[in-house]
Every structure is written in structure tokens, then in C-alpha cells.
Amino acid sequence: MATVENGGITMSDEPSKPESDPEACYPIGSASHAAVPPTSSLSSTSFDRLLSTMLARQATDLHIQVGSAPAMRIEARLRNVEAPAITDEQAQAFAESVLDPVRRRDLDRLGSCDLAFTFGDSRLRVNIFRQQGHLAMAIRRLNLTIPTIEDLHLPAELGRITKAQRGLVLVSGTTSSGKSTTLAAMIGQINRTRKERIITVEDPIEYIHTGDRSLIAQVEIGADSPSYTHAIRQVLRQDPDVILIGELRDPEAIQVAVRAADTGHLVFAAVHAGDAVQTIERIIAMFGPEEHSLLLTQLSMNLQAVICLRLARATRRSGGGLVPIVEILRGTPVVRKCVLDGRYEAIRQAMTNRDNEMQTFDQHLAGLYKAKRISGAEALRTSTNPEALAMMLRGITTRDTQRGLVR
Q1: pLDDT at 305
Q2: What does pTM read for this prediction?
């Protein structure tokens, strides 16, 4: 097993690896000698020490569950802490240390709750839930500093999207793909460059923005408002120019968000979906067939962009860690006509054409592979169409990758 430097908590992969294996605790990025707080075993380790170890190792997630040792996700791989299993008493104490009365009521009533808090130089998002009658915690690391689009190695086109004055910008992806961080970077870009009234609606508030050129208010569901729908409706009465919605969860929230874009606001919102076209399909699928025509009309009129995210492991030569893979769909006249007609395959072809800096996941993967930022195996693992991408990497054009007009 590999041991963290300076006597810190010991980490291991499942299955275990030999002590001599250098990858067992391979450092992330440039933090190859990050200090880890000393501890002997979990039984004598406080919640603070676990969190400190998480930050020192640059883990993205910490999982605490009764009956199992804590686990941390480092470079997308889950690694166990070599320590005794968590007890009911420890899980209860860890949860109580971060729960406020509102979240305690949510946990008691619903069996789970979301919250966020600041620890050291990081912001942590926590989901506390029950499983098999025991408390469990899933903790995600965020940063106090608002990252820039450049910091995250996101395409420059995202910066141009933030210059829009009105419309709907959807940021999508699966869980842990970087949606919240990307949205924070885009809101931060507006804050630094434009005098606007920005209001965010989140559950919970993840990144804390401080007004720069813009005036920013952040509304947290539960603490400040009972629901997304109620909060968004109230926001429309608060003179916003830019609105951020942490997640479009239900049809009513989608309707209010589209209405906000339709009335001249710039609206950013997160959606759980696997690619850009699926993002539109998922929104439509939340409504009955009788409502599809109206919703497609509203989306076609107001769509500024869909930005869909995945994460891939970078090569060690490029610094290691994770690199964002970004699919970009812009609300061009051609795309808007395709949305209006419900022609989803034609939307995919429009992205393949790369007009207005649009790109598919596979096109971005091919570019990163050629720049030696990701390996060929990683590109294929993350690809939407591995067979077509494999041919693209060899310079062979197929019907799936060739440029062509959308008719």
C-alpha cells in the first residue's frame, strides 16, 4: 500500500497495489509534495482532519458511510482510507457538525439534505443521506476563489457566450462533470467585465461571488426561498439582468426560466444530460405531448447556447489531473430552425459543421489528443462514437465526422 507523506492518513486503491507501485498515490497536477496533516488512525481523527487530508490530496470527493472506511476520489479514481470502518456515532457527530436547523428538518423529513460550508481555503458541498438506516455523507470540494474560463482550460467560445445580452444558456453533463464550476466561471466573467444585476438561485450556494463590476445576490433554496420555482418568480421582480439557476429540476422551473429569457434576461441554468442534443430532448421530455410545440417554439427563439461537459484524465506529460471535454451548440438560425422542427439529428450535424465555433465531444477529444493532452485510450473511453473517433485520429473521414450542410 502507498502511504501519504508526512505521516498522513494512508490511502489505497481497490484492489490493493504493492507498496512500490508509484501510481497508488500518484500526485495531482503540480501538488506533488502537498503536506498532509498527521494522524495515526481514524478512531483518533477528527472530521477536520479528514477534510484537511481531502484538500491536501486534492481529492474531488470524500465519502463517509457507516460500516466502511472513508473513501476519497482522486483523479476520478476512488481510493480507500486505510482506517477502521465508520461507526454510527462518528457519522452522527460528523453530520451534526455541519447541519443547521433548516437542513436538519430536511434530513428528518426527507431522508436527505444538501448544504455547503467553508473549510480552510475551500468551499465544500455536502449531501447527507440515509442508507440502510444509517447516516452517510458525500462531500464535494469546491474553491473559494472563482475560477476563470482560462483557469479551467475551457474553450474561449464560452467567454464569447457570456457577452450575450439575453437568452438561455444551458450547461449540462452528468454528475461530477464540472457544471457548477463552469457556471461559476462564466458568471465570474460577467462580474469582472460588465455592470449588471446578477441573481443566482442555488441549492445549496456553492461558489460565493463578490461583486466586482456587477451587483450580485445569491439565493439559497431552503435558507432563503422554499423552492426553485418560487425563487425564480421572485427574482423576476428584483430587476435582474442575468439569472443563474443551479438546476432545472421540474417542468414548472423550466417554464419560468424560459419565460425569463423570453422577457429579455440572460439566463444560465444547469441540466443533467449526456450531450448537447440530449439536453434539449430531456427538457422536452419533461412535458406532455400537447405542450411540445409551444416549448420548442420558445426554445428556438431564446436558445443562446448549450454547453455539455465531460472530464478526461490528462497525460502525465501535460501535468496530470482532469481536463474538460466540451461540446458546444450555439443558437444559430440553422440550429433554431432545427429545434423548432424537432430535428435532433440535424442539430448534431450542425455541430459537426463547426460553424460559429460549435464542436462535438469527439472533435474536442481529437484536438486534445493531437495536442498530447490526453492519450488515445482516454479519448476513446470518453468518446460519444469511439469507432468514428478512432478513424478521425487516423485522419480518415467518415459520414459521422465529415463537414456538410444541414438542410
Answers
A1: 98
A2: 0.83
